[in-house]
Design goal:
- The structure holds two protein chains of two kinds.
- Chain A has one domain.
- Chain A contains six helices and two strands, in the order E-H-H-H-E-H-H-H.
- Chain A has a two-stranded antiparallel sheet.
- The radius of gyration of chain A is 16 Å and the shape is globular.
- The N and C termini of chain A lie close together (11 Å).
- The model of chain A has no long low-confidence stretch (mean pLDDT 92).
- By secondary structure, chain B is of the alpha+beta class.
- Chain B has a single domain, classed as Glutaredoxin (3-Layer(aba) Sandwich).
- In chain B, the strands form two sheets. In chain B, strands 1-7-6-4-5 form a five-stranded mixed β-sheet, covered by helices on one side.
- The termini of chain B are far apart.
- The model of chain B has no long low-confidence stretch (mean pLDDT 92).
- Classes of the chains: A mainly alpha, B alpha+beta.
- Chains A and B meet through helix 1, strand 2, helix 4, helix 5 and helix 6 of A and helix 1, helix 3 and helix 4 of B.
């Protein structure tokens, strides 16, 4: 159901994913440490799954935002629909699973490619206010990737 | 892979992400001229406003906004159009949620929401705006129409 949330919460979460994804990217570039990168991707996948299923406010980063960041900020100017950021969590989960699948298939630099995609997406969301749901939902639906959500 | 090369690739990634963000910021919400040959039939689309079916276009300019449920900028965009509508009687704003209307998304080739079609008094599509428009863009769009 549609609830209204503080728009800064998901962007705070995206900024943490942003840092995590660039670390994964760096670690994944060295074949000796690619396993560590895949492990970090696994953690990211679990976090995305929580966000995609239960929403950003139930997410550990949502909880961090609420307890540590929000008390130090002024009240939000306006609230936003909870569904677009939840959709973005699903996209994040998909990219993480692709990264893990590429690792399992031993594709050279597969984890690095997926981490790079995650980094670009989280940069756009955290610092530019890009909305993945706005840009992707209809397109995915038009090519029948999504039937109904 | 050497440490220098890995650091170089990280820097390249940062640059690519920043450029992608800037490109999106600059391109979103801009009005692009349409052929002006396609015509909208409101009754056919089933546009509802304030609980009533809409059949009348504005005598000057109508903004037909396509929205979805997974859209952060749809509600603020609608709010902006509503404010414009109350100050300018020549402007009409209509909103259509196409979350479950793939047929309409295909017909008008809509890939993102909000997408706004700018219609003249006869319903011809004069331009389209992908993303959340800026106030100045709307003012200049309205300026393109004669009363």
């Amino acid at each position: 159901m549609a609830t209204q949330i503080d728009p800064r919460g998901p962007r705070f979460g995206a900024s943490i994913i942003n840092v995590l994804s660039v670390i994964i990217f760096f670690v994944a570039l060295d074949p000796a440490t690619e396993g560590t990168a895949a492990f970090l991707f696994g953690i990211a996948a679990v976090l995305f799954a929580i966000g995609a299923i239960w929403g950003n406010t139930k997410h550990p980063f949502g909880w961090l935002y609420k307890t540590l960041v929000k008390p130090r900020l002024s009240a939000p100017k306006e609230l936003e629909d909870s569904r677009p950021p939840q959709f973005a969590q699903g996209v994040g989960l998909f990219v993480s699973l692709i990264g893990l699948a590429l690792y399992a298939a031993q594709v050279p630099f597969g984890v690095a490619y997926a981490a790079a995609a995650l980094f670009v997406a989280s940069t756009l969301q955290a610092y530019f206010g890009y909305c993945l749901g706005c840009q992707m939902y209809l397109g995915l639906k038009r090519i029948s990737v999504i039937r109904s959500v | 892979m050497s440490l220098e090369l890995r650091i170089g690739l990280v820097i390249a990634l940062l640059v690519v992400a920043a450029l992608a963000g800037l490109f999106w910021k600059l391109s979103t919400g801009r009005a692009l001229k349409a052929s002006g040959l396609d015509r909208i039939d409101l009754a056919d689309l089933g546009v509802i406003k304030n609980g009533q079916p809409v059949t009348q276009l504005s005598t000057r300019v109508t903004f037909l906004q396509f929205s979805s449920d997974f859209c952060t900028y749809c509600a603020p965009t609608a709010k902006m159009f509503k404010a414009l509508e109350t100050t300018d009687s020549n402007v009409t704003h209509l909103e259509l949620n196409i979350t479950d209307r793939v047929d309409l998304a295909n017909r008008f080739n809509i890939l993102q929401t909000p997408t706004t079609l700018v219609l003249d008094r006869k319903g011809f599509i004069k331009s389209r705006i992908g993303g959340a428009p800026k106030a100045a863009t709307l003012v200049s769009e309205i300026g393109n129409f004669d009363i």
